[in-house]
Amino acid sequence: DADRARRPGESFVWKITISSSEGRKSPSTEGFEVFVKGRGRSFVKFVFPPRNVGRSLLALDRDLWIYLPEAGKPVRIPFSQRLVGQVANGDIARADYAGDYEAMLAGEEPVGGVACHVLDLKAKTKDVTYAAIKYWVSKDRRLPVKAEFYAGTGTLLKTGVFESFKEVAGRLLATRLTLVDAIRKDKKSVLDYGEITIRDLPEKYFN
Description:
By secondary structure, the chain is mostly beta strands.
């Protein structure tokens, strides 16, 4: 149920803007267009800044490739690799927590006044974005509220907060995710999920 609040349908296009900041450095903004078909396929186009145009990511189940125009051919990379700021490739190329992790109910805890179930998610394989996730899901509507993302060593990498819920195609979607580094609290990235187009996508996008 919580996964449904992170994707608007089975086949869609989503425009995502990522704003990253670190201390006193000038913040950076990057844009992506994400094409998703089913639970295991996504194609990510780099839209801006201009220096990134032409790059793309292709996720097929638990395999991920990046295409760089200067390299001339796709190169396989891990979902856990950093894309920009606090954002890993898998944060925008794959959103299937239910498929990638074994979930165990760990208890209950309120977050910002919202009563939540606390779930412990353990990765089913090493090919996914995080080794483990601690996940707070609202009890009343089963919406994602907060997450902690962990490495295989058990180290906390970053925290995430899901916000700005809007109704799209009959379901409530989280249209903002803020990721903050676990050590350096001044290092954060905000993912804003903007224009959504729900439509059937051709197979050629995922070849």
